[in-house]
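Please describe our next protein:
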Amino acid sequence: MSARPTGSRSGRSRSRRPKNGEGRMSLLEHLLELRRRLTFAAIAIVLGTVAGYLVSDFIFARIQDAVANVAPGTKLNYTVLTEAFDIRLQIAFVAGLVLSSPVWLYQLWAFIIPALVRRERIWALSFFFSAVPLFLIGSAVGWLIFPHMAQLLGTFSADGTATLLTARDVIAFVLRLVIAVGVGFTFPVFLVLLNVVGVLPARSILRGWRVAVLVITIFAACVTPSVDIFSMFLLAIPMVGLYLAAALVAWLLDRRAARRADAIDAELASS
């Protein structure tokens, strides 16, 4: 009589236990988890796009105000009948991407976190709370520097010429700028994440600081061609600072990992 409930309990415990003895997920489980995370991220982006559509007129008006500084009387022009609607959808999508960034960035971290140990999960969550504001700040910086770019580019127009700007090209340029600067600000966070999972050691990050500074400077010069170099350094200096901060965090993590490994070796040697 007593063997039956015991077997039932053991059967239930076996059904709850992962198939892999080490608790690892199978390839199918990884794919199902990825699909679930992508579904949540897609829903958030769709809802953000709806909200972005509601403010697309305001965003377009601000871009048009910046374009007006290129030359007197400069306006955005539509070349095809459906271009106005297509542009509004593009603005809505990018605005939705920015507004929903806390959700889809969380889904990205949540997909990676199960592969990490407890200490690494704590770091990963802290990276998430760093990546979201950095992405939003970077997107805001990209949005704010566009009027300066438009003003500078307008100075290259020759006297007696008219500036005819296609709305599709201008809007695409602004939207790419916003996303590019936002991603640029979050790049150091991904460097630290790669260090946590053991892919990129701190010494590699430190050795590449010269190349990183050069790439950041070129990137800042390309996206901020203002009349003076102040705007370029205004963007480059924070990005260099974020890169060095990522290198410092990675170095501290490597030191902690080395001390932990030495302690384990010493314990094994004493036993």
The first helix runs from residue 3 to 16. The chain has ten helices and two strands. The chain has one domain: 27-270. The CA atoms of residues 195 and 201 lie 5 Å apart.
